[in-house]
Structures are given as structure tokens and as C-alpha cells.
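Input.
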Amino acid sequence: MIFCLSLTALLPFDARQPVFIALKVLACVLSSSAAIAVNIWFVAIAPEEIRGRYTSMRMMFSLIVSIALPPCSGILLDVMGRSFLSYGIVLFMSMAFGLLEVRYFWRMAEPEYAPLPRVSIKSMFTIPVKNAKFMRFLLIMFLFYIITQMSCAVTQVYMLKYLGFSYTYIAIISSLMAVYQFIAYRSVGRLQDKLGPTRMMQIGILLIATEICIWGFTPPAAMMYVLPLAYLFAASGNAAFNIAIFSRRYQIIPREGGSLFEGMYIAVVGVALLLGPLLGTALRSAILAVPALESFEFAQFRVGYILTTALMVMLVAADGIMSRLESRPR
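Output.
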């Protein structure tokens, strides 16, 4: 698929964009399918008692790639004037790395899985839905992503258009955040193995809520100086949440038919990521219509951040209550 994307540079100019978009959509579908398979494989080989450390190592390598490769690709695209040929070269290089990955997986010994004997289209939905513990966890995740996206989806716009931050300042702080998150992954992985993924996930959400709370209560004039502190909480929270959510998900998902549960999880999170910004737009419009908030500078953003913080704390409390009820002997 990546090879086909790279070949769009050779098509007539008018045909490049529609073909590229169609192939990109198909590539996203295939990538999501491959991600499910890799996750199932990873869980099968990682011992559950130290899965936090395995996951932290995986996240660390992913973060290294996420930090190193985009600047290299950006330099190449800028040097070549962002032409279709430059995008073709970047995609061709991606294909080369993809083939190396396929070769690596092809030569590995497959772990033992627990596949379902027979799967119908109907059972793809009914099997996960019948698992009450998984559905409660899925509801928590659906609400988490909707709540965060209601306000956080426009943070970049808030910084650039309303606070007047420069791209350079944001890039520097974001890079420092990525470095700290890289450092935090190892400690968080060990801590999760001691506390468990449920408690670690709740800690991660509260740290993220603290960062969002800073955005809400800090006056716009002071936000430039407080931004490093906000990003420090964000990096700690993201490290804790990313590791814990993976371990907790596969602590709940049964080994038999795990791909069905993982597929439903990805689909539900995708819907939440779409709905969150839409609800956020409606929320900001409603806030602007409140006369009492006119004196509160940039109220449509800051009040949204404060409401998001409150909802996230309530979500953690609800998750804690449900977790205790599930752990009680029956």
C-alpha cells in the first residue's frame, strides 16, 4: 500500500489527489488491522507480572521514532519544495522500513494463541458486548476521550491565535515534554508493576486533569511562563496513561477472541475522537452566550478546560467505584 502511495507521484496531476486520498483511507484501515495483530502478539509474549516494563520499553522506542523521523522527513520535503515527488520518496522509504518489519515478523516463532473456533459477522459484535467487565471499561474509555477532546482538540489554536505563542516556542516546549516523557516511561513501567494498571491509569488521568486545570485557571498573560509546568504534568500523565491503558485493556480482554475485543475498542475510541471536538464546539458556543462570563478572558476556552477537569475527576471516581465493586467476592 505504501508503494502504491509513492507511485501517485507518477500519475497525471489531476488524478493524484483523489487517488492519494482513496489509498490513504485504505492504508489507515490496513494499518489499524496490523496494529490489532501486533498488540495481540505483544500480549502473548509479554509476561503479565512484568508487562508494565515490557510496555514501557515499547513506548520508549516508539517515542524515539516519533521524535527523530518527522524532522528528517520535513527537511527532505522542504528541500524538494514539498513536491509530489518528495512525498513519493518519503513514502518509498516508509515502504522499505515496512518490508524490513515484515521480514522480521516472518522469521519469528509464533506464540500460542486462543482463537475462536468460528466467527460470524454477528458474533464480531455480540461476543464483546456480552462481556460486562469489558463493556464497563469501554464506557470509561469512551467518556475519557470525549471529555479530553472537548477542550484539548483546540489547544493548539488557543496557543497560536489567542495567546500569540510562536511556533518556535511551542516546538521547544513540546520537544522538552517528549524528552521528559521518554525518561518517565521506564519509572512508570516499574511503578505500574507494583500498583497495577487500574490504579496507574487513574493516576495518569488525574495528572492529565491537572495539566488541563492549569490551562483553565492560569491568566492568559501568565500562560507562557506556566506552560512548562503544564507540559510536565502532561508528559507524566501521558506516560502513565499510555502504559497502564495497554496493560489494563489486555488484563480485561480474554485470550480467546482477543482481536474482536481490540477491534471494538479501536472503533469506539475512534468515534469518541470524532464526537469530542464537535461537542467542544457546541460547548464553547454555549459559554460565549453566558453574559456573566464576558469579563472572564477567553472564557470559551478556559471555562471549557475547567469543566473538562471536573468531568475527568468524576470519571476517575466512577472508575474507582466500579473497580471496587468488580473486585468484591460474590
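The CA atoms of residues 56 and 186 lie 6 Å apart.
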